[in-house]
Amino acid sequence: MSSLVRTLAAEAAEAAEEPSPFETLMSHLTPHRYGWAPEWQFGPFDLSITNAVFNMWLAAGLVILMFWIGASKPKIVPKKFQNFLEVVHNFVKDNIVYNVMSAKDARTWYPFIGTIFFFIFMMNFVGLIPYFGFTPTSNIFVTAALAVSVYLLAVGLGMVKHGVFTFWKKTLVPPDIPKMLLPLMIPIEIVSQLARPFSLAVRLFANMLADHIILLIFVGFIFLVGTTFSLAHLVVIPIAMLFEVVFTAFAIFVAFIQAVIFAFLSTIYINDALHPGH
To answer: Which one, of 149, 136, 120, 139, lies nearest residue 254 by Cα?
Structure first.
């Protein structure tokens, strides 16, 4: 009798430790530490390797690998992968950077903007890879760090180039505005400046999070019908799989578009800092 009780208790403990399918799905939306990763705690700071950190490293590594493969055997007439990279490269260069900046500024800042684009796109994309499944840009702290860094860089460039007083005067005081409107316009411009990194971070975060929530909803429908075969399996599972395929293709498109938007706005902010008041 006692051995039976112990067996049942052990089985109950194993069942309690084993995550449910929905807990597994939710793990794709929340940062968590991998079981194999050591726990690094330095005072109040937790520096453990989470799925967000690992996937950012993975995205950076994939970008480096992608360009290494594309440039390993360059050809005058590009084919296959080199041709794909050149198409994307020219799209970012011509339609984002050179479209916003002067040719002189664009030559200087394209490497930075191009790096931002490819890094963000790859972070968006790795979340669609099975098993890895967590998109770093669906974490507001990741997007906030990127947005604040870009904005502070732009502001710093403007203050270094024009001087602190001149930069903020040209930025916060619109040209040719009547002096009587300054008490109204300056607060509006301050709010506009503060909103830039906020909107940049939230836009990317919200779109990528919503994308994955939709994908997980359709996967969840498959678990909802249970394991016992019924008519619901013949209806729900094919429809859920069809929508999963369609929205996965759409998610790849969104991953690209959101990287374009982030790179485009970053280019605008840097250009505005280099030429305030224009």
So the answer is: 120
Going residue by residue through the chain (278 aa), what tens digit of pLDDT does each one get? 444 334 434 444 444 455 555 566 666 667 666 666 667 777 777 677 777 888 899 999 999 998 888 777 777 766 777 888 888 888 999 999 999 998 899 999 999 999 999 999 999 988 887 766 688 898 898 999 999 999 999 999 999 988 888 888 888 887 777 777 778 888 888 898 889 999 999 999 999 888 888 877 777 777 776 656 666 667 777 777 887 788 888 888 999 999 999 999 999 999 999 988 66
**What distance in Å separates the CA atoms of residue 117 and residue 106, rounded to the nearest whole number?**
15
The first and second tokens of residue 46, run together, are 């937790």
3-state secondary structure of 42: strand
The label of the residue with tokens 């759409």 reads 250
Using alpha carbons, select from 95, 93, 86, 92 the residue that is nearest to residue 67.
Answer: 86
Cα(70)–Cα(114) distance, integer angstroms = 15
Residue type, 187: P
- Residue 45: strand pairing partners: 42
Name the pTM for this structure. 0.82
